[in-house]
Write a structure and sequence with these properties.
This protein is an alpha+beta fold. Helix content is 43%, strand content 8%. α4 crosses α5. The radius of gyration is 21 Å and the shape is globular. The structure holds zinc ion.
Amino acid sequence: MNFKSIFLLLFVCLTAFFIQSSCVNKPVSDKERLTGQFNYKTDPDFIKLPLAYSTKEIYLRKTVFEKFKAMADSAAKAGVTLKALSGTRSYSEQKNIWDNKWNNYFKNGDSIACMKKILLYSSMPSTSRHHWGTDIDINSLEPSYFATGKGLKEYTWLVNNAHKFGFCQVYDDMKKTGRTGYQEEKWHWSYLPESTKFLNEYHAKISYADIKGFKGSNLASKINFIPSFVDGISKKCK
Ligand SMILES: [Zn+2]
């Protein structure tokens, strides 16, 4: 190998090293972490759930999964199966949900009416608690599922036991509690020891200027989105 080849090889190796370190090891800023704009699948704080605890490829924070696992194992002893349907979601995954619903609901040029319909159950990209890796949707996304039989047994177990593991139903029955924001979600449980820290950080670091990049994002402040929806959680979970 002559001097020129060695120099060329060295150049290629160094270039590969810098590309790799800038792509893989790029530190995630607080704003990116809070708004889902990072790759949770390669983040060392996250873990892919074993299929015994999930229905598809789902990731959560490792600390959150440990507690979810303990809760699901405890539920199993009482004859109740708890499986995650959804865990961490990125900004772009949330934007896909938003865009699909926008295309279905947008009529007569009325952006506000469209947004209100989406916001019954789905959040704006960059505002979802699912960005944080602290929140889980469990067993079904149908309100009626939890009203009778197996679903009611599962929900009753969660209401009586989830708090022992740190989990709380953030979107409770607003007709009874006076909460604002999303409709009741009996499937959505948040691991409070972690999510409370994220909510506090969200308030400290994120403003309406950071909620951007999708249809209707310019109207977030007009509908008072942050106090009504980001803060629209059960008093029991605060
Ligand atoms: Zn959810």
